[in-house]
Amino acid sequence: MKNIVEQIKNQISTLCLIYLIVIITSCSKEIEKPDSSAEIWDIDQKGIPEFVATNYIELDQIYRILKFRSAVGHDYSDAFEDCRNMKHYFEPRGEVDWSTIKIYAPVSGTITRVENEWAGTKIEVESADYPAFRFSIFHINLTAVRNVGDKLVSGEQIGTHIGSQTMSDISVIVNDPTHQGRIVSYFDVIKDEVFNEYSNRGVTSRANLIISKAIRDANPLTCSGDTFVTSDTLENWIYLN
User: Does the structural domain 40-239 have CATH classification 2.70.70.10?
Assistant: First the structure.
């Protein structure tokens, strides 16, 4: 009997370890860099265009949003910054069914990546109007099979959020002149009419959704691999009305 109990304990420990590895590797900091032939955009010379005319998610279902450069989740940074989360998490309200929340293409463009995750599918879309800008949406339950090379139209539903096991994530990466990729905030690229939807929920400024590089650098974090090992003194969330 004792041997059976020990075997069960060992099996449980093994399963837990596998599950932990799956979560860590599926949320890796590693970002796919653009190829050298892709169109570039120099943020320092041209600034960041506001061209996104579609909210990628049903905003009325969202409770709070994680700020850009936060200390929640895991390190997701580019070649120019380190040890900060440069995605936005959208956390749905507790009383709604998270798996019914619709996910839309934020821009018209071409799918450049389809990746199975530990929860749902990650889709990456290259903008047709600004090909140097690529949008990654994480943890989608796709409504149809999607393949690299498929075209999407801005506002087209691509699926629903996977469910309550995790939040919805979005990131935007720009193919800079070094071809290493610079991550910018989703709220840097949306048009004013899209931001107005957030204003109507109590967000007074785009800056409220972004921790600036200067402020984050003045309040640095420590990472072990992709894991934050120090607590943050800054507010990481914006709560919607």
Answer: yes
